[in-house]
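Follow-up to my earlier ticket, as requested here are the two runs.
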Amino acid sequence: MAKEWIKRDESAKQMLQRVLKERPLLLLPQPLHRVPLGTHNIVEIAGPSPSAKTEILAQMAVNSILPKTRNGVQYGGSEHSVLFIDLDCRLDIFRLSHSLKQRISEANKWHKTTNNQMGVEYDEMGLFGECMKRFSYTRCYDSFEFLAALKGLHNKLADDSKKTVYVLMIDNIGAFHWIDRSFSSLPQGNPNRKNVGLQSVFETVVKEIKKLLLLHPMLVLATKTVTSQVKSSYSARVSGFSNNAYREYMPLIWQSFVTHRILVRPLDDKRKLQDPVCYFAEWLLPALNFSDEFVVGDTGILTSF
């Protein structure tokens, strides 16, 4: 009886299966690959418009919905479903599908060349359709639709329990900031009713995402548009060249909810005139002492040399 406490609860194989399910491998595109990100992390991708923020989300979506292997072909994906909530209608579905088709075609071509199977044909459209079934897209035109979409995700994930969803993407979390802020100053007809404004909206947003993560652990990626002035304040604060504090326009409850923040912007030098455009990325939370440069090509984000 004294040795009961050292009896195993599970085998090593069972432990690995449990850990990999609780902490799935997420294939992060550049420039997100610098920091180890996992479920329950809230990542804010900030930058002026345009700065490839939506492209980063699209690249992450392609990495997720592609299978790792299929019929011996290495596609390099994770075969997970993705939830994409579009708040400013910037996602180009044609661009996303084109990038996905390019990845599938290049993987098949590489497999044929390396295995001397040039005469073999693959069902690329069948695989493309299978991948797109893992991509769930919701477009919202105001904060009420956004909150309704978040609340509806609980039932959506419960009804489709066979799908493994590990990534939630929100494109332009501050899209309705000024509209919601204007509501805050309007008088309420019923004094007992909670004021509908910027603060209450984001209190509900954070609350709903927290509830969602309790039952469905996911990585949350949210883009945020900043102005050129804000961009300069960001860079100055991180580099230490200025004592001016950065004035965040998002409510404090959202700021404290974010666990990671990265700033992306197009390079200001002469290389921006080249095709493709070169972008610059720096981590603000956690603050890292190095930065990345990348370009956007037909198949997605590539390293800049």
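Run two:
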Amino acid sequence: MDKERFYKDLNINLDLALEAHDVVRGTRGGEIPGVSLSEESFDNCTVKVVKVLDSKGSGIIGKPIGDYITIESESLRINNKALHADLSKVLSEQLKTIYPFKTEDDSVLIVGLGNWNATPDALGPQVVEKTMATRHLHGRVPEELTNGLRPVSVIAPGVLGITGIETAEIIKGIVEKTSPKALIVIDALAAGSVSRIGSTIQISNTGINPGSGVGNKRASINQDFMGVPVIAIGVPTVVNSSIIAKDIIDNFVDELKERPPLKELSKELNPPMLRIILDKVLNPYTNSLMVTPKEVDDLIRNTSQVIALALTDSLHPAMPEEVANYLQ
């Protein structure tokens, strides 16, 4: 059963544009009209840029028109400050390529999406906790102390189940009152592969649909709704169990095909049969059981540190590096 059909049948949304691109390209073969892919390698990471160029490409891979930058690095899983600092530099430079700011005085609101009570969903709040707010300093302290410091405000608005208010509505109210030039939203994502957890960072200039990857889609946070450009930063922290089960079955079938006596048996595992197997194994949570590694605490801590440092470096270019590191 091809992956594109599998995801559609189970109504699984792929948060990572790179994964959506690879699934469609793998199923249909060849390049995707209206979508481009480029790649660049660094010392300890690879940067891949998916550009959705028009409505045709958007319709094919299911992502809004815009740029999606994916940073892949196994070093995110390693507790190594030197490697994380290098990765933050790469992330910082990539962020600068999609920032909409015209001057260093343009203000920004950083929003940490997610539930701080659930570790796999706490990436956003932890990034906000590590990010320096400077908006309140402007006009209240001597000007020489704020030179090179962009006006930055931060908030972790929680989730609907905690506040009783749609997160997008909370952010919209803050935007209307504080008038930032842009939003930067950070959220945990759902991956289409176990290997993506704690090894991938995606940034985009198209906004975000909170909860879409785990079947709990909320109101979109994008420029159309907010009235200002929205930069999204996301890291996969969970995988749908159906995807893991399918990967196991696919690998099992591939092994059967390599053994002539069992080759005929592999033909019996057609798409309908696969769905029956998944329903039996995962019932009653066929499409709602999400899996995360037991090391998720470390992954969230390391990744939030990398993102917070990259935000400080990219938003406050005049700040000395040792000061930025100290603030983390």
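The only thing I checked on run two: The mean pLDDT is 86. Let me know what else you need.
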